[in-house]
Amino acid sequence: MWLENGLSWMKDTMTQAVIEAKGLNLVFQTADGPVHALKDVNLTINPGEFVSFIGPSGCGKTTFLRAIAALEHPTSGTLTVNGMTPDEARRKRAYGYVFQAAGLYPWRTIAGNIRLPLEIMGFSKAEMDQRVERVLDLVELSGFGKKFPWQLSGGMQQRASIARALAFDADILLMDEPFGALDEIVRDRLNEETLKLWARTGKTIGFVTHSIPEAVYLSTKIVVMSPRPGRITDIIESPLPKERPLEIRDSREFIEIAHRVREGLRAGHLDE
Amino acid sequence: MSRALPVLSVLLGIVVIWYLASIWMNSTWVYDQAERAGTTISFAEMVPQTMDQERPLLPPPHQVGAELWKGLFGQAITSKRSLVYHAYVTFKGTMMGFGLGIIAGVLLAMAIVRFRVMDMSVMPWAIISQTVPIVALAPMIITVSSQMGIQGRDIPKAIIAAYLSFFPVLVSMVKGLRSPDQMQLDLLKTYGAGQGATFLKLRLPASMPYFFASLKVAIAASLVGTIVGELPTGAIEGLGARMLIGSQFGDPLIMWASLFAAAILAGLLIVAVGFVERFARRRMGVVG
Hints:
By secondary structure, chain A is an alpha/beta fold. Chain A is built from nine helices and nine strands.
């Protein structure tokens, strides 16, 4: 009996959407009147997907990611994360969040920074040490645990902040323009590593970006958004294989998807 | 060495100006003496006589130096005439006031950052408190505390010193506790961190550079407060009392020697705070 229940529960969670938005609206009240940051957003993200949100500033891509993380609260519509409200999902440690700036505490070592969420969540000392080692290895920063943030390059700092988001084993990784402040060469490398990380961990990733090549290279699903009011104009399921060397960016398929994304962005712009 | 040179040049300049000023100010007495004796005196004869007067208007540096040496090393340090003894009394008061000021400043800053009501009600009064001249307030604090049956001058002195030293700590800590940006606060929110964790893990450590910067100002303010607390109503111990005795009994050398003892004490205290700051910065991963 309990086995059957367990099995059916497992089935549910396997097929259940990780993130589901239905008719989502979010309005900010500002001094200049209400700003419609998200209008009628419908989106389903399934387990293990790599979803990019792309669009010009003000299109609501970051707001949507923040709503998933319960940092903003929708005005109307429903938004569920693992079948729960975003607030509940946070309490269940459903997601790790990576911001545009690494935001490492300068007074803590790299290991100390990664330990931060673990300390707050009350892990044991031994467990913490073991987890820190593991995630440092995941982002290829083994041996840098004792360094202070200023001793690391910008790219390495951002990798450390990704390790910090991974430390408590959330199923979902939310990344808000994590490589936006880095130069192209570092960015290429981190994109490759992000894909490797995604393949190794099987996490569901929500990724906000300004860059068309970045979105196409990384994603299994690309959500194209446009501003005023922030809304989704196109959702593209990527036909690219899971295994993606950097050279794939010169392939015909890649260029075609990039073209479609660009079209979607332009269409959103013409509406104005 | 490259840092010592400019400092020494300025010091040399001060000493030269000081000697010139001594000659000028003390010459009046020399000329008066000559006139009373019915003789005239040349400039070259006058200058040496301004250098070793018993009650000079402005004692030249070497006289102050000699008096300072005598005060510091001329007798056992437990003697009531020893400047070391008086400096110790002042030091004790300064440290008590400093400690009290830090506690008051930090606690008030925590309350102000945590509660909007405190921000609106206490902060303006904290600022107003610093506009009241401490010289006017010091005798009142001493009188009130003796009315309340508090023995000795240690506690009122510490209160006066704390009154001056809590303020820089308060202002810096408020700024420091508010220094984390929205992103850092959001990050902690995503971990489900509460008020307590946010304070301990983020706000408090982020405020430390501000805190240590304020300590140098606070310790100097505390020393000034202690000396002012030693001035009024018959204190007999401490550098402040020593200065007052020097000026009231017409013994400017004592006054000047005490003044310099206070300056040396201030210098030592600031250097000590600097060491603590350096140590703390290194512990927090900042080099230099």
